[in-house]
Amino acid sequence: DIQMTQSPSSLSASVGDRVTVTCQASQDITNYLNWYQQKPGKAPKLLIYDASKLETGVPSRFSGSGSGTDFTFTISSLQPEDIATYYCQQYDNLPLTFGGGTKVEIK
Amino acid sequence: QVQLVQSGAEVKKPGASVKVSCKASGYTFTRYAIHWVRQAPGQRLEWMGWINAGNGNTRYSQKFQDRVTITRDTSATIAYMELSSLRSEDTAVYYCARDSNWSLYWGQGTLVTVSS
Q: Number of residue pairs across A and B with CB atoms under 8 Å?
């Protein structure tokens, strides 16, 4: 199975700050990576697919980059409604596997 | 719009089975696969398996291979996930999710509690 290592596990930032989350795959997954947002008590929501493509309707302050084994998810200007846990997910191989999540809080 | 509506919360005893349903609407059911993913308290999301809603072919995670069965009813546009031989570690929220080029669009989740 492909292991996905996500960091940090949590972070605290101020409104307007730039926030960056990293995800490392245990082997080359090309660009077969998605990013999801999960708010408390809710299902995950797709934000980024194919490592860098923005899902329709998702604000442009969210972005993703990377290929191979190293990926980055960025919120360019943190907003109060972005409080959530963010997960990466690889789909290069079954089983689909997820990162451990990054909990984003407001300072 | 695309909707996946799951069945309600369940409480089961160790050793029992649970069957969770996932009613799909707003799209052609047989064109998209359905995945099942669970989230135990404080744990990462864990993929259990998927079903090709068109031909019924399934693939399961090795971890659950012996205990999980995923089926679908095309006339009712419902997918099902049955997990047997439940133990306390199976307490989790179980999600169905529609596949679109390996991106997942999720149901609301079903809490399954395993407790004696």
A: 47
Closest listed residue to residue B101, CA positions, set A26, A31, A61 = A31
Q: How far apart are CA B7 and CA B15, in angstroms?
A: 21
SS3 content of chain A, % helix, strand, coil (to 5): 5, 50, 45
C-alpha distances (whole Å) from B31 to each of A93, B51, B54, B101 are 21, 11, 6, 12
Residue B42's pLDDT band (cuts 50, 70, 90): confident
Question: Tokens 């259990």 label which residue?
Answer: B48
pLDDT band of residue A27 (cuts 50, 70, 90) is very high
Q: Is A102 on the interface with B (CB under 8 A)?
A: no
**Do the Cβ atoms of B44 and A98 come within 8 Å?**
yes
CA–CA dist A16, A77 (Å, integer): 4
SS3 labels along A53-80:
EECCCCCCCEEEEEECCEEEEEECCCCH
| CA atoms of B48 and B63, how far apart (whole Å) | 8
pLDDT at A69: 98
In the predicted model, is pLDDT for residue B103 greater than 90?
no
